[in-house]
Write a structure and sequence with these properties.
There is one protein chain. By secondary structure, the protein is an alpha+beta fold. Strands 1, 23, 24, 25, 34, 35, 36, 39, 40, 41, 42, 43, 44 and 45 form a 14-stranded antiparallel β-sheet that branches. Strand 18 (about 335-340) and strand 19 form a beta hairpin. Helix 3 packs antiparallel against helix 4 (about 155-195) and helix 3 packs antiparallel against helix 8. The longest helix is centred in the N-terminal third of the chain and has 45 residues, at about 105-150. It is elongated.
């Protein structure tokens, strides 16, 4: 558009006239005017701030930027846990119940195995004790039978007493050991539950869009997201600008957005009351969220879409309106200054006009009496009206904030965190970060001085156990031989006559008693052998753990192929068993991270493609359209939800290596091969992309200090306005804009499609 001189006849007369009272009576604001009103019907000079009365929508309209996001579910840690690795990666589809990540269970496995061995030993011991007691009772019963046959009532009574004592001892021993078994069983179940808690599964089906970076910090803190799973079939609108604690539009009458040029009502996607209470207790709040009121419209939006959300305190209506910056008040009432042409002269004069008003918004008020459409009304302004300007017709169209980066690298998040298998002091580190490793490669040595002493002690204990077992075996062999010899002698001797009562009592059932004695020896032998094996196994396991170097040191071997991603210890550092010492990383298949260089573009911190949006990948001049499959975490962003009747308020720790990773893309094999051999590669993405919005050049928008006295309006500190050509007059039109980094600004209120705005 070319340069245009102000040629409208009325406008030329306005800027050519003189008015002395305007110079002395400068209305400085949009609200109540406390200065005395000037004499009326005087000629006007330099009256450059006139606005025609017109019909317009009057409503207090506020807006938020929204983005369509998938419903998200979270794999979350309820306590501090060391994450060893992941079974899935970003972009993978998982079904509910699939394993997503696994923690370090070494401690639990050892403890469970040790307690299982201890429990099994007690069970075995109890069985042997019961068998021995039963055999001893059987042996006494044979003796009692012999005493009864010879009529020895005293011995019968004594033996019965022994049997009762044995039965009671058996019952008591069984009760004690069963209590020990039950206690160990409970401890084992608790350990198994805690171990199972370190196997993290998908709470729902969907696509993995975030996993924790465990390269340097594998420990997940309380309520930290280990992974995020997104359901791209179930969408809602999120407003990153506002959290639920600051949300003020609950009682607004009108809430809507535009999609494909069509107005669609929206409603709050509210959190449950217990969730809100939980968030309030912690004083941390998630983003406000919304859904389209018309369910059929939900099928027309997609993840990554940007929408502007509009909120009207009261439903707007088209009324005859005047600007608040034209309103004056005194003891008589509310009035404005109307510009009236002087007959026969190229001049104007101002006339007071009392009016009545109705509904108002931030900049305009309805006129119910006193004014007619088209009348020119004075408005207070310190702004200089442009004399030379370029005109531009307002149109609706697409608004984009696009960025291009060449920082695209493989996503090396297929990581295994390696922990110390024994405590001690780091005595040597054999490799450095980025060194290639294979499974079984020695990485570092942990020296354990107390371990050396313990090895010596363990050798002594194992030797002592061997000696005691050997002696016990010899003793059993000796006893067994003695009983067998006695049994052979019994078969060779003659039975005593009935008159020899004592001798006959000793003889009766003697072979049965000796056979029972052999059973008792066998049970005791079995019991001792089981006890020996249990003790030897416990000592041997501990010895094997400490003796990998043969001197009480512990060598950590790589648990995967890849390269050293991070080393968390230095020489001479003390470490405990289970402490994180280093990580092994490797690139994930067909996954890449896209970053924005914060040093080159410091104002673009946080600029990112939306989850589910399309990005353009250019490889050696050839373009590919790729989905944004994953997003970096934001520690300040909170996620509120309920799981198994418990409330959670979680967060996702961001990737922090190198430049800040903004988002992740997943390619196919063809594109991955192209990337591997590329001479040049770049990625272009939209941080914001809106359809059917009003945009104007940034240079067409002016700003002034907010001087409004409207008590219902929040004082933002500044107002935005444009110069508009209306009915041949240049008028000041207040607008509301969406703050952006572009040379184009989005206008959400104040001007409409077809309006003509001016740029100096």
């Amino acid at each position: 558009m070319g340069l245009v001189k102000a040629q409208n006849k009325k406008y030329k007369r306005i800027i050519a006239l003189a008015c002395a009272f305007i110079i002395s009576f400068c209305i400085g604001g949009c609200g109540d005017v406390k200065e005395e009103a000037p004499e009326l019907l005087e000629p006007a000079s330099k009256i450059t701030t006139m606005r025609p009365i017109s019909y317009r929508n009057v409503a207090r309209v506020e807006s938020l930027m929204g983005v369509v996001v998938p419903e998200q579910s979270f794999v979350v840690s309820r306590k501090s846990a060391l994450i060893k690795g992941f079974a899935v990666n970003i972009g993978d589809y998982v079904n509910k119940g699939d394993v997503v990540a696994y923690g370090d269970t070494t401690f639990y496995e050892r403890e469970i195995a040790a307690k299982e061995d201890e429990k099994n030993a007690i069970v075995s011991e109890l069985q042997s004790d019961n068998n021995i007691a039963d055999e001893e009772i059987k042996q006494l019963e044979y003796k009692r039978d012999a005493a009864e046959q010879v009529g020895n009532a005293i011995n019968v009574a004594a033996i019965n007493t022994e049997i009762v004592i044995l039965q009671e001892n058996k019952r008591y021993n069984e009760e004690v050991k069963n209590a020990d078994i039950d206690k160990l069983a409970k401890e084992i179940n608790t350990l198994k539950s805690e171990k199972n808690d370190l196997t993290f599964t998908a709470p729902c089906s969907g696509t993995v869009t975030f996993i924790k970076d465990i390269t340097a910090k594998p420990t997940a803190s309380f309520n930290e997201n280990i992974a995020v799973i997104s359901d791209f079939e179930n969408l809602y609108i999120e407003s990153p600008e506002l959290n639920i604690n600051k949300y003020k539009f609950k009682d607004y009458e009108e809430k809507y957005t535009y999609q494909n040029g069509k107005r669609i009502d929206i409603s709050e996607y509210e959190y449950e009351s217990p969730e809100v209470s939980y968030a309030s207790t912690l004083k941390e709040y998630p983003c406000a969220r919304f859904k389209l009121s018309d369910e059929s419209e939900n099928k027309k939006i997609k993840a990554g879409d940007n929408l502007i959300l509009y909120f009207e305190k009261n439903k707007s209506k088209k009324v005859l309106a005047v600007g608040l910056d034209s309103i004056n008040k005194d003891d008589v009432g509310t009035f404005v200054y109307v510009c009236r042409e002087i007959d026969g002269r190229d001049d104007y004069e101002l006339e007071r006009r009392d009016i009545k008003t109705g509904v108002a918004d931030d900049y305009y008020v309805e006129v119910t009496e006193g004014l007619s459409e088209g009348e020119l009304v004075y408005y207070a302004s310190e702004s200089v009206v442009p004399v030379e300007y370029t005109g531009q017709t307002v149109k609706r169209g697409e608004y984009r904030e696009s960025y291009k980066t060449d920082i695209i690298t493989p996503l090396e998040n297929d990581t295994v965190a390696v922990t110390a298998g024994a405590g001690g002091v780091v005595s040597d580190i054999y490799l450095s970060v980025n060194d290639e490793v294979k499974t079984g490669t020695a990485v570092c040595l942990i020296d354990n001085a107390s371990g050396t002493a313990r090895l010596t002690e363990l050798r002594t204990l194992m030797a002592s156990a061997d000696t005691e077992h050997e002696n016990a075996v010899k003793d059993f062999d000796k006893r067994e031989k003695e009983v067998n010899d006695e049994l052979s002698a019994y078969y060779n001797e003659e039975a005593p006559v009935a008159s020899e009562t004592d001798a006959l009592e000793d003889y009766l059932y003697k072979d049965e008693q000796l056979k029972v004695e052999l059973e008792i020896i066998a049970e005791e032998r079995s019991k001792e052998a089981a006890s020996y094996e249990s003790e030897k196994k416990s000592l041997s396991n501990e010895y094997a753990l400490l003796s990998k170097q043969g001197n009480g040191g512990y060598t950590s071997f790589s648990e995967a192929d890849g390269k050293i991603g991070y080393i968390g210890v230095s020489k001479s550092d003390p470490v405990g068993s289970g402490d994180f010492i280093y990580s092994v990383v490797r690139p994930a298949d067909n996954l890449y991270k896209v970053m924005v260089n914060k040093n080159a573009l410091p104002d673009l911190n946080g600029v990112s493609a939306s989850l589910g949006s399309k990005v353009s990948l250019e490889i050696d001049g050839k373009k590919y359209e790729i989905d944004c499959f994953g997003k970096n975490g934001y520690a300040d962003k909170k996620y509120l939800f309920t799981k198994e009747d418990k409330q959670y308020l979680t967060h996702s720790e961001p990737y922090k290596s190198g430049n800040e990773e903004q988002f992740f893309i997943k390619t196919d094999e063809e594109i991955s091969k192209a990337i591997a051999g590329a001479k040049s590669i770049s990625c272009e993405f939209d941080s914001v992309c809106l359809d059917n919005v009003i945009t104007v050049p940034a240079k067409a928008i002016y700003v002034e200090t907010n001087k409004t006295d409207n008590k219902d309006k929040e004082k933002s500190g500044k107002n935005y306005y444009v110069w508009k050509l209306e009915n041949g007059n240049i008028v000041k039109e207040y607008v509301k804009i969406v703050e952006s980094m572009s040379d184009e600004k989005i206008v959400v209120y104040g001007i409409e499609e077809g309006d003509l705005i001016l740029t100096e």
